[in-house]
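Marked as duplicate of an earlier ticket. Keeping the data here for the record.
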Amino acid sequence: TLKEHNQQMLYQRPESRFPNQTMHRIDIPRAVAANDIEALLHVADIFESTPTCPNVMIVDRKVVDECDRSFISFGLSSNDCTHLYVYEDSTPLFTLVDDDKGSEYLRLRNSKEYRSTPDRQYGIIVRYAPSPDEYPERRWFLCAGLGPVATPAAAWYLSRHWRILGRRVPRDRDFIAVISAGPYTDRAPHLEELLIDE
């Protein structure tokens, strides 16, 4: 349908401040969650982009189809890069567990569980080296969370504390950092746990 309509989707605001013009045409071949874009913006300046090696935004489906590169992804169960990591690592540092309320929670390899509540949301930062013997410089980063504030909070933490994480975690080790935040701001995250792969 979108191809027949030049990849334009009709977007209608439920309540517009401009009542005479409530329909807006926007070119949007893919939808992305605003909190994931906010997370991306938090960390964009810590990854150097050069003319020969630019930072490029790619949808998760394409990364999974061509996962021959380093990447950082944003979003938890909504992002196929998360599922790619859980599938690829024989003993992943975390798993997603469905709860009986139509949601999910995190279970770390050490059996600790993190469930977001109305008062506290949990995010994660994961660094994983796929095929370290064959590609020693390749790294996959996951920046994700349970709840709308959790992903940007994890990204905010990464953007401000990546040097500290780099000092605490040996370069050749995978890790997961669990970050917590209140429900209203992503700018005051707290490191709950740092689990380093042995």
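See parent ticket for discussion. The first helix runs from residue 34 to 43.
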